[in-house]
Amino acid sequence: MKIRVLIVDDQVLIRTGIATLLGRKADIEVVGQAGNGEEALAQVAALDPDVVLMDLMMPILDGVEATRRLTAQGPRPAVIILTTFRDDEHVLHGLAAGARGYLLKDMDHKALAEAVRTVAAGGALINPEITAQLLPHLGRIAHASHVPAPAANAPVRQPERLALLTERERSILAMLAHGHSNHEISEQLLISIGTVKNHISNIFSKLDVRDRTQAALWALQHGLG
Questions:
Q1: d(C-alpha 3, C-alpha 53), whole Å
Q2: Which residues are reported to carry the modification 4-aspartylphosphate (predicted)?
Q3: What pLDDT digit, counting tens, does each position of 58-94 carry?
């Protein structure tokens, strides 16, 4: 079954180019395009895509607010921010809105297709170019995402929420921090995908986080990445 993709960008040439490149992949189908956030919301309702490639700066409704509205409705479709912006503020706002990926438009089309497959399978990822620059700002990202951050002068000790996790859940949380999909976790730990999903649900509940991105950020904050 093909992965259904919606492309959202206010530049027609960008949309067309991405659609052409992804359309060559046997397992990916571009089901629609939108020129702004409002069109994206309508297209999602009409076309039921698995993945949305979302630009940030668009007229009428920008990509951050469109992402926020989509993710508030549930985990599907997965949203990947696809933009030219590398600065911390744009990354922070995109992740805080619930995006499962943050990628740059100049990336290779093969890497983009693989990113679509990753988030469609339940994974999350950030462009390698900007991962390093995010590390000093994890506290700010956590705050924007409503993930509890330890006080700067707090004693170094095991966080109370981490103590709630089983050893298996800690292992899975660390794998989430590295962007592994449910399928990859299942293969590496030799457990069923259903069991993986149950563990992840328990992790979300114990850490009081909303999604995989927040869980991954929490894990990085607390040394599990």
A1: 12
A2: 55
A3: 999 999 999 999 988 877 899 999 888 766 566 777 7
Cα Rg of the chain, angstroms: 17
* 222: nearest Cα among 161, 137, 146, 144: 161
CATH class of 3-134: alpha beta
Report phi then psi at 78, rounded to 5. Answer: -75, 135
Q: Classify domain 146-221 by CATH number.
A: 1.10.10.10
Model pLDDT for residues 142-178, shown as the tens digit of each residue:
444 444 443 333 333 345 778 888 999 999 998 887 7
Domain locations along the chain: 3-134, 146-221
CB 6 within 8 A of CB 53: yes
Q: Are 92 and 133 in contact (CB under 8 A)?
A: no
